[in-house]
Write a structure and sequence with these properties.
Blueprint: H1 16-46, H2 50-75, H3 78-87, H4 95-101, H5 113-124, H6 128-131, E1 134-135, E2 141-142, E3 146-152, E4 158-164, H7 168-186, H8 190-193, H9 198-212, H10 215-228, E5 235-236, E6 249-253, E7 258-259, H11 263-268, H12 273-291, E8 293-295, E9 303-307, E10 313-317, E11 323-325, H13 328-343, H14 346-356, H15 365-379, H16 384-388, H17 392-401, H18 403-408, H19 418-434, H20 440-455, H21 459-490, H22 501-535, H23 539-558
Parallel strand pairs: 5-10
Antiparallel strand pairs: 1-3, 2-3, 3-4, 4-6, 7-9, 8-11, 9-10
Helix pairs in contact: 1-2, 1-7, 2-3, 2-4, 3-4, 7-9, 12-19, 13-14, 13-20, 22-23
């Protein structure tokens, strides 16, 4: 209830003009980046200037990362989340890119304390001081959707209060509209659309993002994780203060300790960094493969190391707004995937791919099997440091041998796995940062053996199922043999010969190369003639020539 002396001030969101300007800034940035990629990394590479594009790539990508960082800090909202995800990909993206984006973990501009307290008062209908007798005006953490402050309850309990940014719903709506426009641009390229259902990915991303804004749902997630790790002394989940939690304000016990990327502080506390990486990895293996319910936002601001009495320590999770849930089929596929990688079982790996739906319908399974076998021979058992230091010649040899697979990329991203992929990508980068010698295979192998032992428990059922399948196959052999012999007698047997895959692919590449060469010549001629006509005041003809040159360039890019 509101007190008489308290008159609640409305929390005002961004104006329409500000939202329109925000939308235009985002689209303009991505348009510039897309134009640069098309020119340098697609068009110039295809007309014989691959060396120039390669030499200039580091400086160009670094400038793009710096520009994106400035945009994300200015815009906030959705773009901060994208930048934080990319900054954690130290295992994939170049260091000069991740270093530029790393500041987004800590540089999210804080909302003013007056507006934050306005949200608190709006939610509880009372003065902020009556709800929280002490509320630290300096935020403990500032994120894209909200920010956290230390506070104290009336009973003296220390708490961490997460408050949603005012006007964030309108901001996210505009950001998602801009992202939808960018997705529309990407859908024009068949190489992208045939590997991923972009509309489904955008819908899944939007659904999860809106779910993050409901702090009551996040409170329920916190309860679930608390129950999951209640008996695990190595992991701590903060307790929920339900009396002080609403849809836009969430109150948990204060558990902010050493940030997981504060390597110096971790070492100073006597905690081995390699041990932190292993525990983090094992904790996620349990969440994903055993529970089917996982913390989907493991960026550095959400994970802490808590030194305990003696030499012990605990891994602490916060922020449960983004979680992932796996259905039975996904869990089955992922278990097969873990076992396959841990035991180097190629056939089981392909079966896992099929269960998870990550292979395109026309994928050449035999060729993928060969590529996976060769890849295992090169990387299995190596640590992250060894993989990073791997001689480029090894990967060039692999790329040359399987250039057809790399070119066709017969994989797709199912929409229900997008946040698992995002989570694993960030997790991989964090484990590598904690321990450059982190070995995924050593961590996964014992877990794979455990899963295999669990599978052994129902061996009788699986044996009976196998015998039934084999019996059915044997029973069908006489009928199929009789049908084949009848077709031979009638002269209906058709024998199909097919060229070797390498020959087919070589001919296809040669055809594409010739087509691109012809298009490149036409592009150069039209560009030169159009420019000359335009500069000689024949702007109509010059514009037509330049327009046709642009069409030729687009044809080259799509080819």
């Amino acid at each position: 209830m509101k007190t008489k002396e308290h008159q609640q001030k409305p929390v005002v969101g961004p104006s329409r003009a500000a939202l329109r300007a925000r939308y235009r800034r985002a689209l303009l940035f991505f348009a510039r980046v897309a134009a640069g990629v098309m020119w340098w990394d697609l068009l110039l590479r295809r007309v014989g200037l691959r060396g120039l594009a390669r030499r200039t790539a580091p400086s160009r990508y670094k400038r793009a990362a710096r520009s994106y960082r400035a945009l994300a800090i200015r815009q906030g909202g959705l773009w901060i989340k994208v930048g934080q995800f990319l900054s954690a990909r130290v295992d994939v993206l170049p260091q000069y890119v991740t270093a530029e984006l790393a500041g987004l973990q800590d540089e999210v501009p804080a909302e003013s304390i007056e507006r934050i307290l306005g949200v608190v008062e709006s939610e509880f209908g009372d003065r902020a001081a009556a709800v929280f007798p002490w509320f630290d005006p300096q935020p403990l953490a500032s994120a894209s959707l909200g920010q956290a402050h230390r506070a104290r309850l009336a009973n003296g309990q220390a708490a961490m209060v997460k408050v949603q940014r005012p006007g964030i719903e309108e901001i996210l709506q505009v950001d998602l509209e801009a992202l939808g426009r960018v997705v529309g641009w990407l859908k024009r390229f068949s190489a992208i659309t045939r590997r991923a259902d972009l509309d489904a990915l955008l819908a899944e991303f939007s659904r999860t993002l809106w779910a993050e804004l409901d702090y009551l749902a996040e409170a329920e997630n916190a309860r679930s994780f608390g129950a999951m790790f209640a008996e695990d002394p190595q992991v701590r989940i903060p307790g929920l203060v339900s009396t002080h939690s609403t849809r836009r304000v969430l109150t948990l016990e204060d558990v902010y300790f050493i940030k997981i990327t504060d390597y110096e502080a971790i070492e100073a506390a006597g905690v081995p960094r390699a041990e932190v990486a292993q525990r983090l990895f094992r904790t996620y293996l349990r969440q994903i493969f055993l529970e089917g319910f996982f913390h989907a936002d493991p960026h550095p601001g959400n994970l802490f190391v808590e030194p305990t009495d003696g030499e012990g320590w605990r891994l602490v999770f916060v922020d449960f707004g983004m979680v992932g849930r796996l259905d039975d089929q996904a869990r089955h596929g992922l278990r097969d995937l873990a076992i396959a990688i841990g035991t180097r079982d190629i056939d089981r790996l392909l079966r896992a791919y099929q269960i998870l739906g990550v292979l395109l319908p026309a994928a050449d399974l035999d060729r993928i099997r060969q590529a996976e076998k060769a890849l295992f021979e090169r990387i299995w058992g190596r640590s992250m440091r060894e993989l990073i230091d791997m001689h480029p010649r090894e990967m060039r040899e692999f790329a040359t041998q399987f250039r057809d697979v790399l070119y066709e990329m017969p994989f797709q991203v199912p929409s229900d796995l997008i946040f698992l992929g995002r989570c694993l990508a960030i997790l991989s980068g964090m484990c590598t940062g904690l321990d450059p010698d982190f070995n995924l295979f050593e961590g996964l192998a014992p877990f794979a053996r455990q899963l295999l032992q669990e599978e052994g428990g129902d061996w009788l059922d699986r044996l009976l199922d196998w015998l039934v399948k084999q019996g059915g196959a044997l029973n069908a052999i006489p009928a199929r043999l009789d049908s084949a012999l009848a077709r031979v007698e009638r002269g209906d047997l058709l024998v199909t010969a097919r060229a070797a895959p390498d020959l087919d692919r070589s001919l296809a590449r040669l055809t594409r190369a010739i087509n691109r060469l012809v298009a490149a010549v036409i592009f150069a001629v039209l560009l030169l003639e159009g420019s000359l006509l335009y500069l000689n005041d024949q702007r109509l003809l010059g514009g037509v020539g330049l327009g046709l040159a642009l069409l030729a360039a687009l044809w080259i890019l799509r080819g």
